[in-house]
Amino acid sequence: MGKNRAATIGFASLLLAAGALTATGGSAAGQPAAPEPRNSCDDEGFDWGSDKLYPGEEKYNPEVVDSKLQMWQWHYMREDTYGVLTAGGPHVRFYIEDKKSGQKCWGKKESEEWGEEIETGVLDNRNTSIRGCIVDPDERKCGAWLREDAGGHRQNGTGRGKIDNYPDLHLKAKANYDDHEYPGAGPDVPGTTVKVGNHTKAVMRIRMDEGEAIKTFGFVRTSRKDTEIALVSDKYGFADWMKVDALADGGYAARTGILYNKHDQLMVCVRRISNPSPTHCGNWNRA
């Protein structure tokens, strides 16, 4: 099984480059275009310490007759995604597919017998969508596309993000705050402050841990108890709105969860629950 393999990979192959974006997500004049995505189906990897990718969710883990494809990931400084097939019989093939590069990373062999386990190589699942597909002699079936951000964290929703080379940003796309990270404290990001009258001030703040993507969150302080705050990504759309909580001094405050903007831009937004339009937002910030 791939989760027990060990090999050496150069550190340079762990990094994804990103093209320059303007505050609206387009290419800035005089700046280089985004490079082609890393197009590599790696046969080797570190000792995985892998986790099943959303076990039990059939939309990501397709089944054809008795053949089952389980997606796996290895989490550390990059998101290596691979698939393991439990074959339902002979002559079953399968692959994982990168939507950004169009590359298919096939299983190491065609199945020969029932119950045989075969795996693919790995694809980097940051800033792109990946899915797994089973090619049975009688049927082909693919799982749902899985989108992840620059930090390798899952993105939900039916909208289309620019990571998949779509020209438009559909704000029905859904960014997920990382439930495993607490925002904590961090410095304000200059130029991102939002002020609404004399009652509400929201800022974007960052945490930077060595060797990791930049962790960004929003913070708001207000005298209005019906205030909400959220971060929005130029690639993924709005994350969940967070309602303020009462403070001991009589005011109200809230933090958002963590989003990652190593390869995209974020801005902080506030609104009132009783009157959500207009939504007041700060400037885009590219970390």
Which characteristics define this entry?
287 residues; mainly beta; seven-stranded antiparallel beta sheet; 0% helix; disordered N terminus; signal
How would you characterize the overall build of this protein?
This protein has 287 residues and is mainly β. Helix content is 0%, strand content 39%. The chain is built from no helices and 25 strands. It has strands at 51-52, 63-64, 67-75, 79-86, 93-98, 104-106, 117-119, 123-124, 129-136, 139-142, 146-148, 154-157, 173-174, 194-196, 200-207, 215-222, 227-233, 237-238, 242-243, 245-246, 252-255, 259-260, 265-272, 275-281, 285-286. Strands 5, 6, 9, 10, 11, 12 and 13 form a seven-stranded antiparallel beta sheet that branches. It is elongated. The protein starts with 50 loop residues before the first strand and ends with a strand. Residues 1-39 and 167-171 have low confidence and may be disordered. This is Secreted protein. Residues 25-47 are annotated as: Disordered. Keywords: Signal. Residues 1-28 form the signal peptide.
Q: Average pLDDT, to the nearest integer?
A: 75
The percent range for strand residues is 35-45%
Q: Uncertain segments of ≥5 residues (pLDDT<50)?
A: 1-39, 167-171
> What is the element string, with H for helices and E for strands?
EEEEEEEEEEEEEEEEEEEEEEEEE
Helix and strand composition category: mainly beta
Let me know the largest β-sheet: 7 strands, antiparallel
Radius of gyration: 21 Å
Question: How many helices in DSSP terms?
Answer: 0
Residue share in helices? under 10%
- Overall spatial form: elongated
The beta-strand count equals 25
How far is the N terminus from the C terminus?
Answer: 37 Å
Signal peptide: 1-28
Protein name: Secreted protein
Keywords: Signal
Organism: Streptomyces flavofungini
